[in-house]
Design brief:
Distance between the termini: 36 Å
Number of domains: 1
Order of helices and strands: HEEEEE
Strand order of the largest sheet: 4-3-2-1-5
Structural class: mainly beta
């Protein structure tokens, strides 16, 4: 389903997992440039996406689309 939504709307998705559960979530960007996803949308629990997050697999795009490479200057 996420592949279809990506193709139609261009939305990007990540697969996340922790010790209790796992899931697929849409990537969101806040106006300040903060990249996050809803881990549990019904309780409004969000997690920030950063280069240190090891429990994330980018499904529809590379992480470099949203995250700056560490050690590179603009």
């Amino acid at each position: 389903m996420y592949k279809l939504l990506h193709k139609i709307f261009g939305w990007d998705y990540v697969y996340w997992s922790n010790s209790a559960s796992q899931g697929i979530s849409k990537v969101h960007v806040a106006p300040g440039g903060v990249v996050y996803y809803y881990r549990y949308k019904n309780t409004c629990l969000i997690d920030l996406l950063d280069s240190e997050n090891r429990n994330i697999i980018w499904l529809t795009c590379p992480s470099s689309k949203y995250l700056k490479e560490q050690g590179k200057d603009d």
